[in-house]
Amino acid sequence: QVQLVESGGGLVQAGGSRRLSCAASGRTFRSAAMGWFRQAPGKEQEFVAAIAWSGRTTDYADSVKGRFTISRDNANDTVYLQMNRLTPEDTAVYYCAAETRLRLGTSWYRDKYEYDVWGQGTQVTISS
What we know:
The protein is built from no helices and 11 strands. It has strands spanning 3-7, 10-13, 18-25, 33-39, 46-51, 58-60, 68-73, 78-83, 92-99, 117-118, 122-127. A hairpin with a 6-residue loop joins strand 5 and strand 6. It is globular and about 40 Å long.
C-alpha cells in the first residue's frame, strides 16, 4: 500500500513561488497516477493538478494553468507541485493523492473520489 507525506508548505508573499513535495512509500507508487487537490477555509476540496504514472500526461485546473507545474520523479518516489505567481486565492491546505488501482485513461483525473490514497496535507498561505 502506498503512503504519502506532503511537505513544502508555508507562508509566501503574493507573487512568489513555492514547491510542494509528496514523498511516497510502497511499491505501487511508480504505477500510480498522482493528483494534487486543495481545500481553502469554508470551501469544498478542489482539483489542482494530476499526472500519469509515466509523467507523460498532465492535467490542470483552469485556475492554476500556466502558473503551476506537476512533475514526478519515479526513481525517488516523489511527486512535486511547483507553484508560481501565487495569489491569496491559492491559500489552502494542499493534499497529495494516488490512484493505485491502475485505472486507465485520464477522464477521471479531476474526480477526488477516484483516488484511494491521500496524504495528510500541507498548509500554504499567501500573504497580500
